[in-house]
Amino acid sequence: MATGPSRSGQRTSLDPPKGDSAPAGPGGGASARAADRGAERVERRRPWLLEFYGSAVGKKYVMAITGILLMAFVFAHTIGNLKLYVGAEAMNFYGEWLRDFGYPALPHSGVLWLLRITLLVSVALHIHASYALTQMNRHARPGKYQSKRDYVAATFAARTMRWTGVIVGLFIVFHLLDLTWGPVNPDFEHGDPYGNTVASFQRVPVSLFYIVANLALGVHLYHGAWSLFQSLGINNRRFNHWRRMFATAFAAFVTLGNVAFPIAVLVGIIR
């Protein structure tokens, strides 16, 4: 009985199917299953939060939310520091209250450290989201603007956000080393925020740096307070006037309040 193909070219029942191949061996099936599982892992999506943050919209939301947290902190910080005008007793009592807040439910200074960690994480996320958005915009538009009209239309605060952000970042580092931990303040004493502040601002270069840094902070806050509404999708043109008023008032309060502290020490109002 013939086992090959018939003369007409049609396969007989004994011919092997064309294109079929025998298994490579005992491990062939296992290798295929492993490859399938690997493909499934590649196709598996990241957690929702990471997936959302990977988009431009997610990064804008992160910038807005962390910006709100940081704005709330600088606002409260400025109000708290107004106790410098009351005197050493009031300022130092305020500092001790911050360290004791939440005790004994939490360890001494526990709430304060939770606040510091939250702020540091917010700063890190804010910086990363800003950098990532800048890179995404550059890739989306590799060429520079050809017309000066677009450049002029952007406000000074918007054009200088990168540089004011760098100045504010350096200021935060110095501020922590100067008035929180004290290694750059030769007269630093733990538990004496009033004396530490006065001693620091009596150094003219330090006061000048604080003034310049807070002016940069004010410019940064103005644009941040204006643009956070747009980042959150609250950008109806009917409210632009109120947005601008809020951004101006908020930035002016924080800037003037913080700039006034070193000037008050230098002229002898606070001593």
Task: Give an overview of the whole structure.
This protein has one domain (48-266): Fumarate reductase/succinate dehydrogenase, transmembrane subunit (3 helical TM bundles of succinate and fumarate reductases, Up-down Bundle). 69% of the residues lie in helices and 0% in strands. It has eleven helices and no strands. The chain has helices at 28-43, 48-53, 56-81, 88-100, 110-140, 148-153, 156-159, 161-180, 193-201, 204-231, 240-266. Helix 3 (56-81) packs across helix 5 (110-140).
Overall pLDDT metric: 84
Give me the CATH fold name: 3 helical TM bundles of succinate and fumarate reductases
- N→C terminal distance: 116 Å
Total strands: the figure is 0
Secondary-structure map with pairings?
Elements: H1 28-43, H2 48-53, H3 56-81, H4 88-100, H5 110-140, H6 148-153, H7 156-159, H8 161-180, H9 193-201, H10 204-231, H11 240-266
Brief account:
The chain is mostly helical and about 270 residues long. The chain is built from eleven helices and no strands. The longest helix is centred in the middle third of the chain and has 31 residues, at about 110-140.
